[in-house]
Amino acid sequence: MKHDELHAIAHNFAASLSSGLGNVVGFFATDVYANASSNDDCAVTIDFLNGTVSGQTVDETLIHAVPVYRHVFPNFCSKHGAKVQNFRRFEVRFTIVDLKRGFAVTIEDERGKSSTREYEAYSDKRLCR
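The structure corresponding to this sequence follows.
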C-alpha cells in the first residue's frame, strides 16, 4: 500500500480521538486536549500500535481509551484495504498552544519510509510548513 494512503488511514483514525467522540471505537468520549493542556509541554503523545499514552499527567479515561483504539485499529485498517502490518510506527502528538488545538501524525511504513504531517483539530486541515 502507498505511503500516502497509509497516512490518510492514520489521519482518519487519529481524528476520531481528536474529535472527542471516539466513533471508530463505537463511542468513547475523551478530551485529549484537556490532557494536553495539563502538561508543561501542552502535549500528549499516543502510540496507537502499542496502545500507550505519554504525558506528564493523563486522566484515567484516556488511559483506558487508548488500548481500545489499539484493539480496533486492525479492523479499521482492513476496512480501508490495509493491514496493521503495513505500519511500523503510528504515533500522534496532540497539542494545544494559545488555544489552538492540533495533532501531528507520524507513521513509518513497512518499507521504512517515515513522515509526519500536522493538522488543525476539528477542521482536520493539513498545516503546510
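Helices lie at 3-19, 32-37, 60-79.
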